Amino acid sequence: MYSQIHAPEGRLSKDSVKVWIISKAISYAIWIAIFSVLLYLDYRFFWYEWIGWVLIGITSLIALSGIWSILIEPFLLYKNWRYDATEEFLQLKSGAFNEEHQLVPMTKIQSVATNQGPILRKYGLYSLTIETMGSTHRIPSLPKEVAIELRNLIAHYAKIKEVDE
What we know:
There is one protein chain. By secondary structure, the protein is an alpha+beta fold. It has 2 domains: 60 residues; 76 residues, PH-domain like. It has 5 helices and 6 strands. The strands form 2 sheets. A 3-stranded antiparallel beta sheet has the order 1-2-3, with helices on one face. β1 and β2 form a beta hairpin. The N and C termini lie far apart (44 Å). The mean pLDDT is 91.
């Protein structure tokens, strides 16, 4: 007989939307700058005509993709991301169109770590990285206290010992 597994309830920080928007905007600004330079070089040095059309097409696709990734996707990610940790499983649920619900057995978890890049640091957030033998799972954008508490809880449930070097 299986016990009932309840849907995960843990939510990411509301600031995760800002973090995703900023990081995506930086990424897309770099791509647009690269292709703008290539378009200028095409105009300046009279490359084959088809190169200009290909560059215009790629730049247009990057711009449209950027609109999706900056204005829509972060809100969908935030709305649908959930996590939970019990003595038996780590549950991760994400995805707006293609919902993914993962159950990671605590007995399979080998390490758990907190990570913080410059944009996360600006908002006082951490991401949690959970490693098993065959895969790596990530919980993005948690407040510092929540991330450290969850890291310690998962380490306790998975019976992970700190190694002194």
